[in-house]
Design the sequence.
């Protein structure tokens, strides 16, 4: 995909939103195993709102755009996911600032800002069996690939496989945060809904980047 | 799934509208924020008491708004904490010079939404305090969890601070009272069946024909252990043992005993549980001086029950005995 | 079957014992006759109000003994009228110089037991009257049936005569009031699932995953028709049409509206039904001035609901509004 | 079976009681089809009491014995069956009076007294789909057989087949009394629980009469 940085960010966000809406049932079923089954519903209802108001979102710059997304998500999504996902977008937006071009370093910084925001908001870290267990390894992989000079499509392809592998590996973990943590040892053996949601979304972004970029 | 619903996405709003229609003189409903509030709140001379949490636990907490209980309820969707801006808008609408007390059951989502809502309201000069409720003994508190859940025992915290705020207590005093009640309140629940969130359309988990889930949460979260179905007395004995030894409650104590139905269990069975619990406590020298047998905090249509004890002193007893009027009622 | 029970044959006695233990100051329990009575009854200056019927309908009628409601309950086993000598002994224990009023839901078994009990008590010089309640519109009254059933509407008859007897009304006056309330009260119910009597251990009838039973009785008796599951609003419309056109209730009437849960349906869903019923009645110019949304008369663990209307005048309204205190309560 | 009239009546009553206890589940299931499923439970609980107190029942004469049975049944059985079955025993006892011998005419008179008592108590009649639809044809058959000079065992054999045939024929009827009547036309197609209960009981009496009489 070519285009301005804003167009690229728009593609990413629209794909996230559309994937959340399309996977309402699947994400909900993942959350039902040791959680309360509403992860899919919460994300879908919130990102529906994002898509509904899509054309009216502030597009002054990448930062403003992402911050506005973060506000919609925080204010429309309930449960744990609202504050967690909203914080991620908000922090990424603040990190981007009034950018019109985004370097590889800036993208990585935005992703770090997002995951750090989640850690602070959720008082959680890698290994707690949350979406951080997909997001953080994925960010590491993106940083590595960009440093090695790979093009965007290649970077995203690696990000997608990394997120998928990492999400699947969460089934080895015992949950220490979120509702799943109440079940202790019994949370072992099933993947974390949030982490798997991230994997599915990144796969869709990787796919969209090449197909929609080509048009 | 067979339920009395129309559009599953309208489950919460239509329920709230029903409650408002049934109580036109006493309640006000603001659909934009799922907000149900007393028609006469906020008041200059009274701290506003607000509780928020996911829906699906009715009558908690949307049907206990009223005199001597909550000034407002701020519900999210089924089993989902309310979005942060519902909390923020609710806090603004309920702003009183004496402050707003937000009662939060200890779940990650609820705590985050209420923390964020509080920060935003405070930025506008509103006095806000949060009181966290965590009465569930099924979850062992440890460094590796997010701490105990708030379950049916929240009724007693609400009742106590609701009564005290009606009598003019200031917000520090309400925090003291609420924390004091929370500290002497313990609950454990058991599920005989799963429950069916309307939007999911199927049961949240599966329980075999001969299985029960001991220590279940109120969102269908699995509990301490899955075990073979057994008789009512044996189930009570296990719940009671866990609850009594936790505080612990001991001989000479006066207690309130609550048997709370989880939504699908008829009240006849709750009294069979009550009977055993009352008898066992009496044997142990623990005197039941207040009894609560009904649905207080449910998990949709789950068959099951929870048992709560509150250790009473004169102050708590008087607050629990103070008059109150809410939407859930007989007459 | 997963239920909180011990021995199914002890289901009713253990429940009654639980109720008595939870209300030691106000109730007295006589296990020999399944008798639960007010501790301060009978009184010289008050007609004793007694209701009997099968069990399995809790809170009706064993949990509504108390000030302003029943002086005693005389329950049979699950879904079975009490044996005649329970009626006889209960009547003797409740004998007041002002008489004993027996409230009987219109079922063959109940009527026979109460007729026989009354005859035997009268033979000992006790003044006894029977008031029959038959509010169910699902059953068409005709020469070929035993007439309409008494269902959830009995709450209003009990409330009215309970209040009036507290105010000193004599037995003729109570008969007048009770019959008057019964005459303006109509109910129809719908089942989403069957129910499981403890002694049977399995469901009474089968309903397909997509079927509901319209006009069901409170003992799991089949109703008017079996139909496809549909949404809450459509179900309310059908219940309301049957109930409204029966009396009929018409524009300008003030009514009490009751949405009664049948035991397995959570109160959240009851308010979704309430909402529609209230809206529809308002459209028809019928004003809902009293609302009742809760479980009043259940069928064990059946998922389902019934809708009751009572046409109000000043006398009935005042009696329904009078204070009362019973075992089923929130606080 | 030989023996005194009282011994004969005792055999009949004990067999009724034992059959009711043994068939709790079957009778309950019959009542669940269009009734409320408690017919078996009600009969079993009541006749258990009869068997429990068996040795202490007044045995002054046949009338006294049957009246006492009627009182136990009425006072211990709930539902419709208590008053109905209790009345039947009571009326049969009154009809028997202080008899020590029972002629065929007396037996028929006792049965008529019982069925008339049920009709009066239940405001019901043949054709309403109740136990009367087994009891009345059975009584007719007994009267015919006795008149034709058949011996007791033969009379009882005919009574049993008649009751069974009549009970099965109730499935053609629409219920007009009892809880089943609420279902109107839908009560057609299944037999009446009370009538079938009578048939099973009379079969057991017929069997007991020959086997226990032989001992
Ligand atoms: N403290 C936390 N920090 C970060 N992520 C979390 C935390 N708690 C839960 N999550 C993530 O949120 C997901 C569940 O989201 P959601 O269903 O909205 O929450 P809930 O229903 O428990 O309030 C989990 O699968 C996990 O990935
Ligand atoms: N009015 C009546 N007269 C005679 N027999 C009746 C009458 N009503 C019901 N029965 C008989 O009683 C049987 C049901 O008994 P039972 O289950 O104890 O009654 P219920 O549960 O309806 O009170 C029916 O099958 C029928 O044979
Ligand atoms: Mg969840
Ligand atoms: Mg949730
Ligand atoms: Mg019955
Ligand atoms: Mg029956």
Sequence:
């Amino acid at each position: 995909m070519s285009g301005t940085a804003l167009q690229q960010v728009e593609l990413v966000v629209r794909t996230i939103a559309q994937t959340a809406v399309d996977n309402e049932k699947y994400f909900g079923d993942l959350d039902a195993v040791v959680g309360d089954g509403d992860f899919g519903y919460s994300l879908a209802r919130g990102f529906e709102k994002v898509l509904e108001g899509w054309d009216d979102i502030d597009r002054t710059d990448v930062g403003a755009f992402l911050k506005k997304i973060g506000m919609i998500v925080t204010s429309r999504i309930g449960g744990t996911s609202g504050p967690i996902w909203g914080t991620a977008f908000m922090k990424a937006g603040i990190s981007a600032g009034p950018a019109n071009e985004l370097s590889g370093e800036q993208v990585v910084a935005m992703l770090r800002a997002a995951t750090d925001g989640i850690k602070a908001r959720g008082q959680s870290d890698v290994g707690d069996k949350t979406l951080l267990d997909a997001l953080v390894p994925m960010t590491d992989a993106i940083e590595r690939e960009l440093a090695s000079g790979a093009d965007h499509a290649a970077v995203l392809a690696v990000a997608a496989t990394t997120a998928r592998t990492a999400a699947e590996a969460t089934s080895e973990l015992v949950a220490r945060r979120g509702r799943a943590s109440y079940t202790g040892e019994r949370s072992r053996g099933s993947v974390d809904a949030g982490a798997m949601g991230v994997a599915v979304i990144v796969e869709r972004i990787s796919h969209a980047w090449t197909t929609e970029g080509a048009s | 799934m067979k339920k009395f619903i129309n559009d599953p996405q309208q489950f919460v709003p239509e329920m709230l509208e029903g409650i408002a229609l049934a109580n036109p003189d006493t309640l006000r409903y603001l659909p934009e924020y799922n907000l149900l509030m007393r028609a006469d709140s906020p008041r200059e001379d009274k701290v506003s008491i607000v509780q928020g949490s996911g829906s699906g636990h009715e009558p908690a907490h949307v049907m206990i708004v009223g005199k001597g209980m909550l000034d407002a309820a701020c519900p999210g969707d089924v089993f989902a904490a309310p979005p942060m801006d519902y909390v923020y808008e609710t806090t603004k609408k309920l702003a009183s010079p004496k402050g707003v007390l937000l009662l939060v059951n200890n779940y990650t989502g609820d705590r985050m939404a209420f923390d964020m809502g509080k920060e935003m309201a405070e930025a506008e000069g509103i006095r806000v305090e949060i009181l966290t409720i965590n009465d569930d003994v099924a979850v062992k508190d440890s460094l590796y969890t997010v701490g105990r859940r708030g379950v049916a025992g929240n009724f007693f915290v609400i009742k106590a601070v609701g009564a005290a705020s009606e009598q003019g207590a200031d917000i520090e005093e309400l925090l003291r009272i609420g924390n004091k009640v929370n500290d002497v309140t313990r609950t454990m629940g058991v599920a005989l069946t799963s429950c069916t969130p309307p939007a999911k359309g199927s049961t949240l988990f599966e329980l075999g024909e001969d299985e029960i889930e001991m220590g279940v949460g109120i969102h269908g979260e699995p509990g301490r252990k899955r075990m073979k179905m057994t008789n009512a007395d044996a189930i009570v004995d296990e719940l009671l043992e866990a609850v009594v030894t936790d505080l612990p409650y001991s001989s000479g104590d006066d207690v309130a005993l609550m048997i709370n139905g989880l939504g699908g269990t008829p009240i006849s069975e709750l009294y069979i549980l009550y009977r055993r619990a009352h008898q066992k406590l009496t044997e142990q020298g623990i005197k039941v001086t207040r009894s609560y047998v009904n649905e207080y905090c449910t998990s949709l249509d789950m068959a099951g029950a929870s048992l709560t004890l509150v250790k009473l002193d004169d102050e708590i007893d008087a607050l629990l005995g103070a008059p109150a009027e809410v939407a859930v009622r007989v007459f």
User: Anything to note?
Assistant: Chain A has nine helices and no strands. The pocket of magnesium ion (ligand 5) is lined by residues C 54, 79-80, 109; D 36, 38, 79 (CB under 6 Å). Residues 193-214 of chain A form the longest helix (22 residues). Residues 46 and 76 of chain A are 5 Å apart (CA to CA).
